[in-house]
Specification:
single chain, alpha/beta, five-stranded parallel beta sheet, disordered C terminus, binds BIS(adenosine)-5'-pentaphosphate
Length: 234
């Protein structure tokens, strides 16, 4: 049976959001991106947003205690609204977050069934993020790429008509900090989920459609075990 509770893991710019969005649309799952949630909180100047802003602009991780609360609340809302499953995009990003998630989902009898690692080499990521443009309205959140998925009209969001912009943290110097943060704090989760028998690795450097096909195949197999190496393109 296809997995319905998944984590999309991988470096910044790996294509997690792109693939999570597609998978959720096709399979009717809830897409839960902590990056999107935090950007919306920053834009709305909520207490969480005010705490998160400086960390995000510097390419650093928002403290665990802030993000865990945001994510668990979002899962509870999605479940209460009748979601048949979810894809977590950008969470967990540290071992304490992974442990907190395991406990929260075990309490709710909704354990993670599969973790998809999108393994995209650092150099490919740097090129992609330099070309990424995002809708300036966090409520829309549409994502483009000047090379692989440009908006139909230059600088204008296809979905809502607002300007599309380079994200604050997509400047080259901040991308480098995000990559270092990933390899230091988040990459240990690869082993964590491999040991749990949940990890499936998908190469991230093909076209969006090729990768979507690999993700779909993996999800349809229902996850559990994949032993392959995932030392990354680092
Ligand atoms: P977040 O928004 O989650 O950033 P990220 O993990 O760095 O991921 P990105 O959104 O940059 O990339 P992606 O992998 O989704 O790639 P995408 O599909 O867009 O988090 C931002 C910040 O919030 C963090 O730095 C941190 O401060 C904070 N935060 C969030 N979660 C947190 C947590 N759990 N704990 C603590 N802090 C947290 O693709 C990238 C580009 O490539 C796009 O332009 C896309 O169109 C293009 N593209 C995608 N796939 C392909 C392909 N196959 N071929 C060509 N182009 C492609």
């Amino acid at each position: 049976m296809a997995a319905t509770r998944l984590i999309m893991l991988g470096p910044p710019g790996a294509g997690k959001g792109t693939q999570a969005q597609k998978l959720c649309k096709d399979a009717g799952l809830a897409h839960m991106s902590t990056g999107d949630m935090l950007r919306a909180a920053v834009a709305a100047k909520t207490p969480v947003g005010l705490q998160a802003k400086g960390y995000m602009e510097g390419g650093k991780l928002v403290p665990d205690e802030v993000v865990i609360g945001v994510l668990v609340e979002a899962i509870d809302k999605a479940v209460a609204a009748g979601a048949k499953g979810f894809v977590l995009d950008g969470f967990p990003r540290t071992l304490p977050q992974a442990d907190a998630l395991k406990k929260a989902l075990s309490d709710r009898k909704l354990p993670i069934e599969q973790v998809i690692l999108i393994n995209t080499p650092d150099k490919v990521v740097q090129e992609r993020l330099g070309q990424r443009r995002s809708c300036s309205d966090p409520k829309c959140g549409a994502v483009y790429n000047l090379a692989s998925k440009p908006p139909k009209k230059d600088g204008v969001c296809d979905v809502c008509g607002k300007p599309v912009v380079l994200r604050n943290d997509d400047k080259p110097e901040t991308v480098l900090v995000r990559q270092q943060t990933y390899w230091r704090d988040t990459a240990p989760l690869i082993d964590y989920y491999k040991k749990a028998g949940l990890l499936v690795e998908v190469p991230g450097s093909g076209s969006m459609d090729e990768i979507a096909g690999l993700v779909k195949d993996a999800v349809n197999k229902g996850g559990k075990k994949s032993g392959g190496c995932c030392c990354g393109g680092h």
